[in-house]
Amino acid sequence: MSAADVVKETRPRMDSSIEDFRRRLATIRTGKASVSILDTILVEYYGTLTPLNQMAVVHAPEANMLTVTPFDASQTGAIEKAIRQSDLGLNPQKDAKMVRVPVPPLTEERRKQFVKQVHDIAEDHRTAVRNIRRDSNDRLKKMLKDKAISEDDERGGVEEVQKLTNTYVTKIDELTKVKEQELMSV
Question: Is CATH 1.10.132.20 correct for 3-26+107-184?
């Protein structure tokens, strides 16, 4: 294994961190209805917590309305309860075979709470990218200690890993800025 191999293995790990960050951002609701805002909802289903998207179909028929149609119609009450108890601030209404979830416009205070949540998630993912950098640098140092690579290779590998880290932290900052603008626009 060479220093270049360590750098090659670092990139996909950082990519997966960015993808996770994008998924987490999608679950934070903005002013309009998006099916991904219900991705984090867990519903009590015969004694076990089950992700909502595994037990129902979620649609956004209008800009300010979501509909949740469970595969088992007897679960509409449990779905309504789970959505109501989530920290999304939604007030679902149960019909016979589906749950309607009106998405109210965000208040200024709620927008600020969501922006704070976005910044917290961003910091968690920046930390994850930095931890990946640390792991890669540790592997390079161990390879140098074991005389598997030269000092120049180790130094070059550390520089490449740092460039990758800077690139991915910048991506996280850009995505954060876009989501913040999305949240704060009325």
Answer: yes
Do domains 3-26+107-184 and 35-102 share one topology? The answer is no
- pTM for the structure as a whole: 0.77
The residues pairing with 101 across neighbouring beta strands, listed in sequence order, are: 66
Collapse the DSSP code of 70 into the 3-class scheme (helix H, G, I; strand E, B; otherwise coil) and give the result: strand
Residues 6+ apart with CB under 8 A from 98: 67, 68, 69, 70, 76
Class of 35-102 in CATH: alpha beta
**What is the C-alpha separation between 76 and 74, in angstroms, rounded?**
6
pLDDT tens digit sequence for 11-68: 999 999 999 999 999 888 777 778 888 888 999 988 899 999 899 999 989 888 999 9
